[in-house]
Amino acid sequence: MSLIGRTFFVSTFLFLIGFLSSFSATYNHIQKSPYQAKKSLSDSKNISKAYNINEKKAIINSVSSSVRVMSVDEAGDGISMASGTYFIYLGKYYVLTVSHAIVGTCEDTVFTHFENSSRCIKFVAIDKLQDYAIIEVEPLEGRKALSLANAINFKMKKMPKLLDKTYYTGYPNNIGPLTMTGTIAGFADSGHLFVNSYAWTGSSGSGMFDQNGKLVGIIMALDVGTTQYGVDVLENLLIVIPIHNIDWVGALHR
Fold this sequence. Notes:
Layout: H1 3-31, H2 34-41, H3 53-65, E1 66-72, E2 79-89, E3 92-97, E4 109-113, E5 116-127, E6 132-137, E7 146-147, H4 148-151, E8 165-170, E9 178-187, E10 193-196, E11 207-210, E12 215-227, E13 230-242, H5 248-252
Parallel strand pairs: 2-7
Antiparallel strand pairs: 1-2, 1-4, 2-3, 3-6, 4-5, 5-6, 8-9, 8-11, 9-10, 10-13, 11-12, 12-13
């Protein structure tokens, strides 16, 4: 074979190798399921660059610790879908959510994040008056358990202020996980926070983080307005249980 022929052969061979490699990579990318793409895009690393370091920390804490809470009633006829925040304390794992989301027994309560799931070990605290639940759970793969001491500011002087920025991740309308921004709009006589954001059924139990990455409360409900035209839900005004209403010491040191 002549030099020109050998050169042409080698060039053609290398072109085919490169083409096949490129085609294989492209094909694998195309074959990636919408489920996998959604999981990747929902990752805490995929955050807009428009936020500063502290705000990114808050968003990362929110996104990486959020879980879906599913509870089936004892009759097996109904299922409650809500959100929660995943914690670790003294080597044990917990989920903080609202008590009204728990409609069944521990055995009928499951915590999920995409394809991964964790079961309830025991109900540590179910406070129906304050509307919160602390539940010990199995480790949940794919979630970053927040350190209780680092995620919560227990100093009363560090209370939230008007128009502080907030962030939460949850499952409104059983869609998600979705991450929402907001601002603290006001305070109720009971101590609950009013947050201007967006939520719907399924958001209940979501952890609300401030602009410094600290947990300030959990979403309890939406406000309801009454006019001459009837009753309507204000999906942009959230009622949040303040973190200092939760008896962590009584629940975790029994």
